[in-house]
Amino acid sequence: MARSALTREEVLAAAAALVKQHGPDALTMRGLAAELGTAVTSIYWHVGNRESLLDALVERTVADLASIGARGRTPAERIVSVARALRRELRDRPHLVAMVHERGLTERMFLPAQRALAHEVHAAGLRGARAAEVVRAVQFQVVGYVLVERNRERAPAQSPAEDEPGQAGPDDPDDPALHRALARPVDTERLFTASVRALVEGLLATGRPDPVNSRTGRVS
């Protein structure tokens, strides 16, 4: 029996869940209607045809990423928090993000995070080209890291090439702890946080003007 009081938001939420799990090709109007326990005509009434539904999902994804905000006590901490939130959002919905890109809305999708980053970079005292460099470097770091993560997840399991020429084995006397650590699974969240924090702190430090000696008036 067809359900009553179906809302447009429920249709979009169910469609987004299907796309996130199986990709856009798996999204059909009949399949979505079956998922919601309603008639296909009800789906059309709420969202129009399939292309209109996909457009609505893209707009919904763009709106979801607009909710990213900064947290922390210092500008550097807040920039890192934006980067971490952006990474989580991109990883959580790869198919939807791909749909946004295919429709030429990638810049619009990243605009809220870019504004949040620019605000914190200004709070750190940077302006102009140096501020833009930090914002773009963080964005590139996030997107590049997510792409590397996805490629690693899709690739077949790899074994360390310990016996190859130039490769140190796990019993290497110079740094056995290093090789033990490299043999363990990668903590991608921790690695991302460490790398983006180092990037941000380094860029903010080099972007600030040199301190001036209050007694001599010269750059220290």
Number of strands: 0
Strand content range: under 5%
User: Roughly how much helix do the residues carry, as a percent range?
Assistant: 55-70%
- What sort of overall outline do the alpha carbons produce when their principal axes are compared? flat
Radius of gyration: 24 Å
User: With helices defined by DSSP (H or I, 4 residues minimum), what is the helix count?
Assistant: 10
Would you give an account of this structure?
The chain is an all-alpha fold and 220 residues long. Among the domains are: 8-48, Arc Repressor Mutant, subunit A; 64-153 and 188-207, no CATH class. Helix 4 (50-65) crosses helix 6 (94-102). The chain has 10 helices and no strands. The termini are far apart.
What order do the helices and strands come in, and which of them pair?
Layout: H1 8-22, H2 29-36, H3 40-47, H4 50-65, H5 75-92, H6 94-102, H7 106-123, H8 128-154, H9 176-183, H10 188-207
Helix pairs in contact: 2-3, 4-6, 4-7, 5-7, 5-8, 5-10, 7-8, 8-10
Which key phrases capture this entry?
220 residues; mainly alpha; 67% helix; Arc Repressor Mutant, subunit A
